[in-house]
Amino acid sequence: MTTFRIGFDGPSVDNGEIDVADLAPSLLALGEFFEAANRALNNDRADVKLKIRATEKGSFVALLSLDVSYISDILDFVAAHPDRVTAANQLLDLIIKGGTVVGGTVGFFKALKWLNGKKPEQVTRNDDGTTTLTKDGTTIVVDQRTIVLLEDYPTREATEKFVKTSFKPQGIQKVILDEANGSKDEPDLTLTKADVSSAIVPEPTKDEITETTVEREALLKIVSAQFEEGYLWRFTDGTNTFTASMEDADFVKRLDNSEVVLSKNDTLRCAIVEKQQLAGSHLKTETTITEVKEHISGARQLRLF
């Protein structure tokens, strides 16, 4: 277990107090960030917990403890390969400092600030567990595990959420992350509002986007119909409820002319096109009704003969 401080500085916290409605979202987002970073580095080999221990006055400072606990089933693996599991103090060091490698490596947040939403022009993996990044004629050295975090979408998304959430309250000008016994005059990491842009996850390139399209026919029960252009209909296939755009112009025209009247429990036999796009860790599905082949009224009668 390791302990560190998170501090909020600005006019709204000069008296050493902060609204719990402002503090809680930031701490929750920070917890999600450490969970994502732990998964990226340790996979299922260890769990991480972020706990608040105390508060101390002076701007507003919260004392937090970070605990990475090993899964009992892999204790033998940890004992045999301690270098393959990132402990709490190492995880914190990678994020707010630079790692345990000697030579002035740059930590995760400082690397993000240096990249400022851009990709490095050159990446060189070194033999000592570090990687050299070059951009705009300048060079930094990072721990190889920092590269893992920089390339991990869940970690980057959690980072963006934490930074944005922390600066959302009015009057917050700085967020400080520092070892519990660190110097308040020179914290390990200081974030300002100017750093929000560097925390935003870059849009995936075309090479990083995976798409698939499926065409099928299905019976769909209408949950809600939308007759205004641009609005989505809601259907159920008996298992899942989903929205879809109605692109059968002939069917829509018949509805407008009252040639077709919809009622509760009506079912449509439809030709469907489903497009899925995986961009980063975001999976998006768009469903389109291209043709209504049959309208089955919900008010059906039993056949006696």
Characterization of the model:
With about 300 residues, this protein is an alpha+beta fold. The chain folds into 2 domains: about 1-100 and about 145-200, no CATH class; about 205-295. It contains 8 helices and 13 strands. It has helices spanning about 20-40, 75-80, 90-95, 110-115, 145-150, 155-165, 195-200, 250-255, and strands spanning about 1-10, 45-55, 60-70, 120-125, 130-135, 140-145, 175-180, 190, 210-225, 235, 240-245, 265-280, 280-295. The strands form 3 sheets. The protein has a 5-stranded antiparallel beta sheet, with helices on one face. A 5-stranded mixed beta barrel has the order 9-10-11-13-12. α1 (about 20-40) packs antiparallel against α6 (about 155-165). The longest helix is centred in the N-terminal third of the chain and has 23 residues, at about 20-40. The chain is elongated, with a radius of gyration of 27 Å. The relative contact order is 0.12. The model is unreliable at about 70-85 (pLDDT under 50).
